From TrEMBL, chain A:
Belongs to the energy-coupling factor EcfT family. This is Energy-coupling factor transporter transmembrane protein EcfT. Coiled coil: none annotated. The gene is ecfT. Forms a stable energy-coupling factor (ECF) transporter complex composed of 2 membrane-embedded substrate-binding proteins (S component), 2 ATP-binding proteins (A component) and 2 transmembrane proteins (T component). It is a multi-pass membrane protein. The lineage of its organism: Bacteria, Bacillati, Bacillota, Bacilli, Bacillales. InterPro entries: ABC/ECF_trnsptr_transmembrane, ECF_transporter_component, EcfT. It is found in: Cell membrane. The chain crosses the membrane at residues 26-56, 63-87, 107-129, 242-263. The keyword Transferase does not apply. Keywords: Cell membrane, Membrane, Transmembrane, Transmembrane helix, Transport. Pfam families: CbiQ. It comes from Ureibacillus galli. HAMAP family: EcfT. The keyword Cell membrane applies.
Automatic annotation (TrEMBL), chain B:
Forms a stable energy-coupling factor (ECF) transporter complex composed of 2 membrane-embedded substrate-binding proteins (S component), 2 ATP-binding proteins (A component) and 2 transmembrane proteins (T component). Its EC number is 7.-.-.-. It is a peripheral membrane protein. Residues 3-246 form the ABC transporter domain. Keywords: ATP-binding, Cell membrane, Membrane, Nucleotide-binding, Translocase, Transport. This is Energy-coupling factor transporter ATP-binding protein EcfA2. It is found in: Cell membrane. It comes from Ureibacillus galli. InterPro entries: AAA+_ATPase, ABC_transporter-like_ATP-bd, ABC_transporter-like_CS, ABC_transpr_CbiO/EcfA_su, ECF_ABC_transporter_ATP-bd, EcfA2, P-loop_NTPase. Gene3D superfamilies: P-loop containing nucleotide triphosphate hydrolases (3.40.50.300).
Length: 265, 290
């Protein structure tokens, strides 16, 4: 069931994008999210698309696989598109059927917003597909380090994040196992009226919570036994290294931003 | 109810970069009433194969016959519920499936899903709780107040309450104390005999396979590499070694005794009792000859 989800999954590889430092990738993606909003005409949106395709190409992720993974968000995409088509009433009328009218501006906005949405999802997917969850949290911890001065528990936050990420697959496995055990006992999760289906979730959730709490307790004990006492004075096994490729990718992004600023109307 | 797997292959995450085959062209026939053991190392595909026995997984290639039902790769299988009633699976660590407020309700969950009335389900629970070696007072307790071993027994009762014709056991005694292991395995064996069930035991314990099974299939890297009666399988320790498996203690012990006595015994013994009888007979014969 969840096998098809690609959002948040990591595919190991050794492409240009894979090898980048997580810090540069994080900065890149966050900056990109802002930069996307600069685009406001055909030319600038074309730049965005070409740029995204270039990044996809450099990540060596199969386009088919990436698009397949977008299926869950198609509904959202179509929904935003339709909202713009129906509710924007500016520019010339392109199509008319009774009281139902499509305006030029509506179509334009609909297409643009959809592209913006698509490009954002693709970029963030590439980030998670090419960076292991551990490197992402490492990157975030380093990037947030300056906030320590504001008494923000950066290390603890990063640890919480990496534990959460670490246990997603475990919990998914667990869900799958319990689901199968209950299905083998005749519980039916995919058929019947809504009321029955909601009831069928209880045999799934109770054991899942029980085991999650047990796991958390075991983990806490195991950490304590091994002398864990927070981030103070802790050294790291995985060192982050900034290479020339990281600089280049950020330069590319800056170049892209300049292009967008110049060509936007 | 016969179970027949023909050329069954199974791949996890079909059609994604994570695609991974866990079974390759497995052929396996389990006639009604047999006690079949499936042995293999972790990762040999034994847990994957057992989920084919009641349609939890559908083969990626090949077909599975379960009684008169046929599940073919690539075709939608509808109405699997009747199969699931007939084939009960006790998963590894079945205590993880408990969820109800009381033990009684949890045991009744399975049968009631298959349309058994509350009275009948309750009666079954009362009978079964004693069968699995717990007292009737346990029925009113919360399953989460029990010890690990007790929870295991409750979970097993929950599967037995469905009154399946085929029982599939996935390492049912993992993590129990030796005595509990023996009790539970003996209980399954006497059920198997009394109710003429088909029992499929997935395990890595050679001892259990030797003691109870009529037939053993050996899985190795997703393939079914050997199949035969325990005596046939354990006679050939060289082939077993090839799959990084060892014959049960008792068979290895027999080899040592044969070396000591300087003569082979007439057959491979599968239990301590058998070996004792066999040695006694060989000694008697030896004395008679003198």
């Amino acid at each position: 069931m969840m096998e098809k989800m690609i959002f948040g999954r990591y595919i190991p590889g050794d492409s240009f994008v894979h090898k980048l430092d997580p810090r540069s990738k994080l900065v890149f993606v966050f900056a990109f999210i802002i930069v996307v909003f600069l685009a406001n005409n055909v030319m600038t949106y074309a730049f965005l698309i070409v740029f995204t395709l270039l990044v996809i190409f450099m990540s060596r992720i199969r386009l088919y696989f990436l698009l397949n993974g977008l299926k869950p968000i198609i509904f959202l995409l179509v929904f935003t598109f339709l909202i713009h088509i129906f509710f924007t009433r500016e520019g010339d009328i392109l199509f008319e059927l009774g009281f139902f009218k499509i305006y030029e501006e509506g179509l334009r906005q609909g297409v643009f917003i959809s592209i913006r949405f698509l490009v954002l999802v693709l970029m963030t997917s590439i980030l998670t597909l090419t960076t292991s969850p551990i490197s992402i949290t490492d990157g975030i911890e380093v990037l947030l380090n300056p906030l320590k001065k504001l008494k923000l528990p950066v290390h603890e936050l990063a640890l919480m994040m990496s534990i959460a990420l670490r246990f997603i697959p475990t919990l998914m496995d667990e869900t799958d196992k319990i689901m199968k055990a209950q299905m083998a006992r005749g519980s039916d999760l995919s058929a019947g009226p809504m009321k029955e289906r909601i009831k069928a979730v209880v045999p799934l959730l109770v054991p899942l919570f029980v085991s999650a709490f047990k796991r958390a307790e075991d983990l806490a004990t195991a950490m304590e036994v091994r002398g864990y006492r927070g981030g103070e004075g802790r050294t790291r096994y995985r060192q982050l290294e900034w290479h020339w490729q990281d600089t280049i990718s950020l330069i590319l992004l800056v170049a892209m931003t300049i292009l967008l600023v110049l060509y936007r109307s | 109810m016969d179970i027949k797997l023909q050329q069954v292959s199974y791949a996890y995450s079909m059609g994604t970069p994570f695609e991974k085959y866990a079974l390759f062209d497995v052929d396996l026939t389990i006639p009604h009433g047999t006690y079949q053991a499936i042995i293999g190392h972790t990762g040999s595909g034994k847990s994957t194969i057992l989920q084919h026995f009641n349609g939890l997984l559908k083969p990626s290639k090949g077909q599975v016959h379960i009684g008169d039902r046929l599940i073919v790769a690539g075709k939608k299988a509808k109405e699997l519920k009747p199969i699931r009633q007939k084939v009960g699976i006790v998963f590894q660590f079945p205590e993880h499936q408990l969820f109800e407020e009381t033990v009684l309700k949890d045991i009744m969950f399975g049968p009631m899903n298959f349309g058994v009335s509350a009275e009948v389900a309750q009666k079954r629970a009362r009978d079964l709780i004693k069968l699995v070696g717990l007292s009737e007072e346990t029925l009113d307790k919360s399953p989460f107040d029990l010890s690990g071993g007790q929870m295991r027994r409750v979970a097993i009762a929950g599967v037995l309450a469905m009154e399946p014709e085929v029982i599939v056991l996935d390492e049912p005694t993992a993590g129990l104390d030796p005595r509990g292991q023996r009790e539970i395995m003996d209980m399954f064996y006497s059920l198997h005999k009394e109710r003429q069930l088909t029992t499929i035991l997935v395990t890595h314990s050679m001892e259990d396979a030797a003691r109870y099974a009529d037939n053993i299939a050996i899985m190795h890297e997703g393939k079914c590499v050997l199949s035969g009666t325990p005596r046939e399988i354990f006679a050939d320790s060289k082939t077993l070694e090839q799959y990084r498996l060892e014959p049960p203690h008792i068979v290895r012990f027999q080899a040592k005794i044969e070396r000591l006595m300087n003569q082979p015994l007439s057959r491979i013994c599968l239990t301590e009792e058998e070996l004792a009888d066999e040695v006694a007979r060989a000694l008697r014969e030896g004395r008679d000859k003198q």
